[in-house]
Amino acid sequence: MRQNPTETLRRILPKVREVLHVAGVEMQLTAAVSFLTILQEESVSIHTYAHSFLQVILLHLEHRDAGVSNAWLETLLSVIEVLPKETLRHEILNPLVSKAQLSQTVQSRLVSCKILGKLTNKFDALAIKREILPLVKSLCQDVEYEVRSCMCRQLENIAQGIGTELTKSVVLPELIELSRDEGSSVRLAAFETLVNLLDIFDTDDRSQTILPLVKSFCEKSFKADESILISLSFHLGKLCHGLYGIFTPDQHLRFLEFYKKLCTLGLQQENGHNENQIPPQILEQEKKYISVRKNCAYNFPAMIVFVDPKNFHMDLYSTFFCLCHDPEVPVRYTIAICFYEVSKLLNSGVYLIHKELITLLQDESLEVLDALIDHLPEILELMSTGGESSVQENKLSSLPDLIPALTAAEQRAAASLKWRTHEKLLQKYACLPHVISSDQIYYRFLQRMFTIMMTNNVLPVQKAASRTLCIFLRYNRKQEQRHEVIQKLIEQLGQGKSYWNRLRFLDTCEFIIEIFSKSFFCKYFFLPAIELTHDPVANVRMKLCYLLPKVKSTLKIPADKHLLQQLEMCVRKLLCQEKDKDVLATVKRTVLELDRMEMSMDAFQKKFYEKDLLDQEKEREELLLLEMEQLEKEKQQNDGRPMSDKTFEKKRRDTKTPTTLPKNIPISVPGPTSGTQSTSKEIKKSKLIRSHSFNNQAFHAKYGNLDKCAGKSSTAAYTPSVSGLTKTSVISLTDDSFRTRNATSAPSSFSSNTPLPSTSRGTGNSGDPKSSGSKDTQPRKAALKSRKSNP
């Protein structure tokens, strides 16, 4: 049909028709799928398709095999969607009158029910009333309960086709009668259809007709088959929404009690018997009870709306507690999925479910943990900003079990074989700088990220730990800790003995380029990264080649001219000295890409406007972190006058750092120029105000600027140019330590007391008399020498 539709229809289709009369199940199923594919691909026009294929499809609708019959029916229902009205009327609707008669087989009448439900979307209300509704009524009164149930489930489609008035006068009476049917499956179908049609009926119909039916259904459900309870528990949320405002206070209370009873259904019957001793019918019943409780957990957010979040503690907290501690994993899994919705609905009352969050984090099932951590950043943000207290402080300080629960959850995930859950958890931990203090992250989480990077055997997990570690570093509040982490990254990864660690160092460099400003990367990681061009392992050199375009994008001319020379020198060495053919081929491709790249300039450029602004914002944040740390030290050392700023002190204790900054923050760039040396008390006061605003910024669930810069790490960015640019000096790769690139071209946001490998546009403040006497800040050599590594 794709290659030659005309000849296929003329020569092949007649043979297919002949074969299908005696074909087996497999060929029938294949033909049904093939006919549907021809329709979907529009291999021929609709008129040609109807003329050639429709009769074949109709002929096999009543095949003796139920699977084959259903396959042809699915094909026909898809064909009905595209056929014109006249074809539908003559080829399908008119023959349907005889096919729906009691004299036909049950299978024929079941097929007629489904076709009628589909046809209502193709005709107007008058035609439906005249030609289709009589058939519908007849099938609703069929002697076989299967037919009545099937037709009942099609009434929803029919109601949407005929409009509100006809639905109230024709469909609703049929549904009421079917809801009293002797067959439980028919009653169940009528109930579910009524729930789905609640929006169509007005308030009078709901209160006078539907509410009594629902009430009767609930009262009889415990005496009937458990499958009715499963359906009822699943549709409770829709019922609450559709009947909201109609219940009297007494009916409201009874419905709530009914829901609570369903939430604990089957738990009271637990005993100490061995599972092998329990009769099979009891085990089957318990499985149904588990499904009921699972559906109740699914509808829990709707029930909070039903009772009003203000009444949660009194009306629903005990039920929520039971669902979170349910002995069955599917129930706890479902309530873990709903936990974020529950937290949003409770708003300021979210503190009520702190303990349940800890419970689910400590759950023995990793499936429950996996469901919970999907929205863990949003949940923790609500926990940290919500609560009954009006004091502006981190509410998680009242939840001392959070950090042990988070660390235990990570360790359980790491000990399991479910590495995807472990990877996801590490990715979600990137939100922690907002909800717990910088020191807590440093002492409880940061070293763990290092350990995972060094020892874990799963690459996605290592990369997730690396990126999260970079975010922790990005928002660390103490300069000394930041420099210690940088030192570890360079010495243990970049200069590690294992080539695997050096590969992870390059991954980390990529994340640094993405998350930090370009000046930060150039200051600390540029030279350690390109030093790996001398690595003895070909895979490391090849990975570096792929990274070089992103490395080059961090440079700005003319400030980084000497670093550009170093990069070009390394590339030339690779071209001249590389012996591995795969690496050499990669180098050649990389050279072409590097040549095509446009260098970012110190001056503002229109083509890089958005990227430059993004990098400028990152650099502002990095500078502001340094300023805040200095102001905190001055605040602590100021013993002469009492502490008047209580908010600052609380912020100092709870140390939160956001990812977004107010755009009107003025930035002063430190350096030896006359403008930056005039720091008066008024300027310091303004910095203190800025630090307060920095602390109070909202931490968006997507981590603000971090995700904005995802995928943009290979672009050039703008760093504020500063007067007094001095001549740069070329740095030799064989020096024992790296010297700074120039004196004053960028802020020294990360100036260290410990002389790290630094190629910053701003000078490292190593000569600061305040820091020179510290025992922990003795100079360390971070030589990047040619070494023999163990592959």
List keywords for this structure.
791 residues; mainly alpha; two-stranded parallel ribbon
Q: Can you describe this structure?
A:
- The longest helix has 29 residues, at 609-637.
- The chain has 791 residues and is an all-alpha fold.
- Mean pLDDT is 79; it is low at 387-393, 640-755 and 762-791.
- Strands 1-2 form a two-stranded parallel ribbon.
- Residues 671-680, 742-776 have a biased composition (Polar residues).
- Residues 782-791 have a biased composition (Basic residues).
- HEAT repeats lie at residues 132-169, 171-209.
Question: pLDDT below 50 for ≥5 consecutive residues: which ranges?
Answer: 387-393, 640-755, 762-791
Summarize model confidence as the mean pLDDT. Answer: 79
Number of strands: 2
In angstroms, what separates the terminal alpha carbons? 57 Å
Please compute the radius of gyration using only Cα atoms.
35 Å
Q: How would you describe the shape?
A: globular
The fraction of residues in strands falls at under 5%
- Largest beta sheet, briefly? 2 strands, parallel
Helix content: 55-70%
**Total of helices:** 39
Strand order, sheet with most strands? 1-2
Summarize it.
With 791 residues, this protein is mostly helical.
Helix-strand blueprint:
Layout: H1 5-20, H2 25-40, H3 46-59, H4 66-82, H5 85-99, H6 106-119, H7 125-140, H8 145-162, H9 164-178, H10 184-196, H11 203-221, H12 226-234, H13 236-242, H14 249-263, H15 280-298, H16 300-307, H17 312-315, H18 317-324, H19 329-346, H20 354-361, H21 366-373, H22 376-385, H23 402-415, H24 419-428, H25 432-435, H26 438-455, H27 459-474, H28 479-494, H29 499-515, H30 518-524, H31 526-530, H32 538-553, E1 556-557, H33 561-577, H34 581-596, E2 600-601, H35 609-637, H36 646-654, H37 674-677, H38 681-695, H39 705-708
